[in-house]
Design goal:
Length: 200
């Protein structure tokens, strides 16, 4: 992926297609960049805590450079379109929450209906693309305050990610990161084998 691409193009290329969720993630990432006066992460200067596993997280990864592999993307499975972005060097963090909108336009509901079906007629495919164009325009041109609530928050910065030894699970024989291994009696267990053995 080319870092010289505009943020929207980076996110779409990373995600694989354009959809309302990726667009909302792009807007959240851009708000974080502006508010925290930062650029894309290179070495864990940024941290992102995401409270959903939906499409918008791909924009956070591609635009902000926060990833699981670098250890600066933290996932909390709360099912909320909320992103907390923190800047280590300034000790600042912003929590961005997508506004709840139970009265979306009929066009959005119709788009969701069409997008969830595989048996579209040619006319419905055209309708879906036209609706996506309208949604794109409304999300990408909306003022941030119309789609997000945000505020600066205190943030407990974890240590930078460390490379840890890999141990062998006594039960399944697979490798497990030292920090996740569970020592029980004379055994070293991976979390899944520990749970299978009745651990809690």
């Amino acid at each position: 992926m080319c870092r010289d691409m505009p943020p929207l193009e980076q996110a779409i290329q990373f995600h694989g297609h354009i959809c309302p969720g990726i667009l909302m993630g792009v807007r959240a990432a851009e708000l974080a960049l502006k508010h925290l006066q930062l650029e894309r992460d290179r070495d864990e200067e940024l941290l992102a805590v995401v409270e959903t596993d939906s499409c918008g997280v791909d924009a956070i990864q591609s635009i902000l450079g926060c990833t699981f592999g670098k250890g600066n993307l933290i996932f909390k499975d709360y099912g909320k379109a909320v992103y907390t972005i923190a800047r280590r060097d300034k000790g600042k963090a912003i929590r961005i929450a997508q506004k709840f909108n139970p009265k979306r336009s009929p066009g959005f509901d119709r788009y969701r209906e069409l997008d969830g079906r595989k048996d579209l007629t040619e006319e419905e495919k055209v309708e879906r693309e036209n609706l996506l164009g309208q949604i794109f325009e409304s999300i990408m041109t909306a003022p941030w305050e119309d789609i997000f609530d945000w505020r600066e928050v205190d943030f407990d910065f974890p240590e930078k990610a460390q490379i840890r030894r890999t141990l062998q699970c006594s039960r399944c024989g697979e490798g497990v990161m030292e920090g996740r291994a569970i020592s029980i009696e004379d055994e070293v267990l991976c979390p899944s084998c520990y749970l299978d053995k009745g651990g809690q």
